[in-house]
């Protein structure tokens, strides 16, 4: 049986280029599960990986796949996992379970030996992929596959950050970079978790978008001189209980320190370029008791918790569907920063139920909705 893969090659101009290839089914170990994917998200990280910025990769990228178990390794039976079971295939594909991180409480997302989708094992831009049973993310029925895909990376990342940010219901949480893909999901999760949300981003056009998602306050950094002063004013001079920085900007991190209230927490999520450092004086920490923590994706339990918000209708990702054939164009638009919220719309293609290996962007905001070419998938 043939399987469809989307491989990438690095071009000389550094722009990601993807090409569809037909190959054989991936090999299944005795404790592995073969998953036939129905959708997969496109993350900015995939484009960075395809561009070669992040070092060596596998040929098949992608880490927001949703599909169903279609074949079990020889050591597994349906008492382990039922054929047809819906599963998620995320960034973290396996962990060692024995390193210092894995042995630490909540440390598995930082496993020193972890296998990452597209980096150490083939990713989800493919019709089929293989997942070790011991690290299988079993998904409940309910929300459509294309709505769950973005939760497997951006969604669980921001949910986990909110979960550990130290705020309780009714307290103020700032999301810096709130109009981006991760930030926008963050506004929805923050509201659903009972926090009062201050959204910070650049540009007037993000304002209504952030309010529609549930922000109580929007601050436009392009027209506001002293963002911290506005945060203090809106929070009754206290400052925020937590600031989550999703923007990959050293400036955003620098500004966030002065927005925090007593014992506030800065949660690092966005990754600035290596040259953008943050300065602080120890007195800020001594006087205010503030802390800085980082958050990296989430565990399989975090994913299930994040998905439960979709099941309850409290969080609804905005997604657009496209096909594998258009991955190069999608990548070009992401890398050139042309993907913007302004184009956001839901396509009727979302209601199609015969999409095989279609793509959606997690940070999606453009209106890709080409028809799925069935012929490509015939076996
Ligand atoms: Zn480990």
What would you note in describing this structure?
- The model is unreliable at about 340-379 (pLDDT under 50).
- The protein is of the alpha/beta class and about 375 residues long.
- The chain has helices at about 45-50, 100-105, 145-150, 155-165, 180-190, 205-215, 225-235, 250-255, 280-290, 300-310, 325-335, and strands at about 1-10, 15-25, 30-40, 65-70, 85-90, 90-95, 115, 130, 135-140, 170-175, 195-200, 215-220, 240-245, 260-270, 290-295, 320, 360.
- Strands 3, 4, 5, 8, 9, 16 and 17 form a 7-stranded mixed β-sheet that branches. A 6-stranded parallel β-sheet has the order 12-11-10-13-14-15, with helices on both faces. It has a two-stranded antiparallel ribbon with strand order 1-2.
- It folds into 2 domains: about 1-155 and about 305-375, Medium-chain alcohol dehydrogenases, catalytic domain (Quinone Oxidoreductase, Chain A, domain 1, Alpha-Beta Complex), CATH 3.90.180; about 165-295, Rossmann fold, CATH 3.40.50.
- It is about 25% helix and about 25% strand.
- A hairpin with a 5-residue loop joins strand 1 (about 1-10) and strand 2 (about 15-25).
- Helix 4 (about 155-165) crosses helix 5 (about 180-190) and helix 4 packs across helix 10 (about 300-310).
- The chain is built from 11 helices and 17 strands.
- The radius of gyration is 21 Å and the shape is globular.
- The structure holds zinc ion.
Secondary-structure element series = EEEHEEEHEEEHHEHEHEHEHEHEHEHE
Second-tier CATH architecture of the largest domain: Alpha-Beta Complex
Q: Looking at CATH, which topology of the largest domain would you report?
A: Quinone Oxidoreductase, Chain A, domain 1
Overall strand count: 17
Strand content: 15-25%
Number of domains: 2
Biggest sheet, in brief?
Answer: 7 strands, mixed
Number of helices: 11
Shape: globular
CATH evolutionary superfamily of the largest domain: Medium-chain alcohol dehydrogenases, catalytic domain
Small molecules bound in the structure, each named once: zinc ion
């Amino acid at each position: 049986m043939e399987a469809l893969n989307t491989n990438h090659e690095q071009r000389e101009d550094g722009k990601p280029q993807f090409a569809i290839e037909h190959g054989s089914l991936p090999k299944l170990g005795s404790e592995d599960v073969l998953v036939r994917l129905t959708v997969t998200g496109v993350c900015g990280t995939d484009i960075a990986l395809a561009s070669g910025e992040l070092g060596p990769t596998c040929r098949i990228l992608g880490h927001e796949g949703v599909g169903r178990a279609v074949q079990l390794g020889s050591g597994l039976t349906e008492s382990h996992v039922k054929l047809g079971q819906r599963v998620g295939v995320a960034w973290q594909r396996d962990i060692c379970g024995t390193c210092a991180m894995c042995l630490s409480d909540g440390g598995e997302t930082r496993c020193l030996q972890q296998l990452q989708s597209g980096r150490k094992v083939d990713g989800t831009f493919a019709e089929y992929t293989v997942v070790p049973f011991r690290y299988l993310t079993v998904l409940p029925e309910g929300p459509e596959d294309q709505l769950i895909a973005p939760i497997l990376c951006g969604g669980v990342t921001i949910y986990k950050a909110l979960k550990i940010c130290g705020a309780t219901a009714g307290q103020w949480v700032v999301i810096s970079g709130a109009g981006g893909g991760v930030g926008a999901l963050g506004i929805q999760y923050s509201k659903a978790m009972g926090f009062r949300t201050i959204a910070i981003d650049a540009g007037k056009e993000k304002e209504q978008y952030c309010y529609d998602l549930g922000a109580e306050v929007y601050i436009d950094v392009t027209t506001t001189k002293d963002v911290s002063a506005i945060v203090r004013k809106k929070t009754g001079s206290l400052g925020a209980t937590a600031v989550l920085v999703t923007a990959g900007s050293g400036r955003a991190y620098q500004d966030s320190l002065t927005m925090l209230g007593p014992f506030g927490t800065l949660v690092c999520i966005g990754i600035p370029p290596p040259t953008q450092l943050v300065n602080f004086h120890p007195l800020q920490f001594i006087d205010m008791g503030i802390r800085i923590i980082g958050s990296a994706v989430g565990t399989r339990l975090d994913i299930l918790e994040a998905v439960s918000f979709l099941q309850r209708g409290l969080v609804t990702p905005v997604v657009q569907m496209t096909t594998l054939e258009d991955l190069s164009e999608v990548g070009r638009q992401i890398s050139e920063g042309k993907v913007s919220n302004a184009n956001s719309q839901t396509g009727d293609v979302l209601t199609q139920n015969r999409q095989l290996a279609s793509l959606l962007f997690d940070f999606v905001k453009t209106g890709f909705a080409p028809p799925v070419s069935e012929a490509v998938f015939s076996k």
